[in-house]
């Protein structure tokens, strides 16, 4: 799914959090959204997912202003039941959407939790919980997936497993927007990099793996670009 964002702005009380944001994400690509705390990343993602509305601006999904529930998101902590297994967590959503057990098992395979059996999510590592959160988001096979800092707090193995999952979803044709503070890690999976600073887009380019993304980031954030 191709995503086009046009002139989005958002103000909370007196504070302008997003200022005239426009960018496109090509279908089936991973777009990395970078920015320091408070840059406006979560606000932008919440607007894209429809959790809050923008003051001005438009969003087009494959050229349409509305989607037919083709969006999935993991924003803030994953909404999972700690006393239920991975399967039963997915089942709670499957029941609401009329999704088969076959699809639940497929999803468990994709997120690498097929072998967790009756183990309760409360006993999972942080990385497993994050992957289960992504499982909840992709159960309905969304064409556009929004991931807000999914690597936060994960150890290197957890990050590697999560990035691997992102590449698997990309290979299935899902368009992904991912925000993160792990600049180097994100540049491994993203084909496009966007840097948001003080509510404005300061950088929007194809990810050239040769570029030193950390140096670029600090130049933009601290150099006032
Ligand atoms: N509901 C709200 N009411 C008032 N101000 C808000 C609200 N939500 C966010 N803000 C403010 O908007 C600005 C951007 O916040 P946002 O969470 O979008 O940034 P972020 O880039 O996601 O930061 P982080 O990396 O810390 O999650 C911050 O100054 C924040 O305090």
UniProtKB/TrEMBL annotation:
Domain of life: Bacteria
PROSITE patterns: ABC_TRANSPORTER_1, ABC_TRANSPORTER_2
Keyword Chloroplast recorded: no
Alphabetized GO MF terms: ATP binding; ATP hydrolysis activity
Keywords, comma-separated and alphabetical: ATP-binding, Nucleotide-binding, Transport
Residue ranges of every copy of the ABC transporter domain listed in the record: 3-223
InterPro entries named among the record's database cross-references: AAA+_ATPase (IPR003593), ABC_transporter-like_ATP-bd (IPR003439), ABC_transporter-like_CS (IPR017871), P-loop_NTPase (IPR027417)
Signal sequence residues: none
Pfam families, A to Z: ABC_tran (PF00005)
Keyword Nucleotide-binding: yes
Family membership: Belongs to the ABC transporter superfamily.
Protein name according to UniProt: ABC transporter ATP-binding protein
Provenance organism: Lactococcus lactis
Lineage start: Bacteria, Bacillati, Bacillota, Bacilli, Lactobacillales
